[in-house]
Amino acid sequence: DQQVKQNSPSLSVQEGRISILNCDYTNSMFDYFLWYKKYPAEGPTFLISISSIKDKNEDGRFTVFLNKSAKHLSLHIVPSQPGDSAVYFCAARWSNYKLTFGKGTLLTVNP
Amino acid sequence: DSGVTQTPKHLITATGQRVTLRCSPRSGDLSVYWYQQSLDQGLQFLIQYYNGEERAKGNILERFSAQQFPDLHSELNLSSLELGDSALYFCASSIDRDVYYNEQFFGPGTRLTVL
Lengths: 111, 115
What we know:
Radius of gyration of chain B: 13 Å
Shape of chain B: globular
Largest interface: A-B, 24 and 26 residues
Strand content of chain A: over 45%
Strand content of chain B: over 45%
Structural class of chain B: mainly beta
Oligomer: heterodimer
Structural class of chain A: mainly beta
């Protein structure tokens, strides 16, 4: 049973445009959500997070939106840059500290 | 560089064998997490240790075990290896000194290939 789902395995956008990566979850007990970015041959790196008591968190070009009623979160990257090309993982935490990850979305930003 | 180190980087072995993966957390981090990433799968949480003690368990097989030593480094032992155990194994660490979420920092991973 996959509690965190990233339904788009890949996404391709043009440099300078907006990238929107989506994530759905099923467990209403999740209280913290995170996005990780992963380049080939490297471990995932933390990008941005949001608490379940908020609906938006912004950090530079990256904004995460949380819609609790729809159990949906999204990551917006504006403007997209070629260096943003990577696999993006959505993750969710329940109070027992462990993170549940989605399968990832491969973002390709074309120059 | 996250500050988390994992050795070895690559490991090739045969079915039925046993291997040990090693992880050194960031300086000051008390928690170590182990994850498995198989082909077409997201990161699957295996197990967490906090200051030497097991804190949380995920989808870890009975053939797998882990421990965290007094110097806080951790080892993941995989035994009776099967072809399906071929995967990337990541270690992550975090401070976990309070009840609020602490970011997990990931190591570069160990790629295990079972032939």
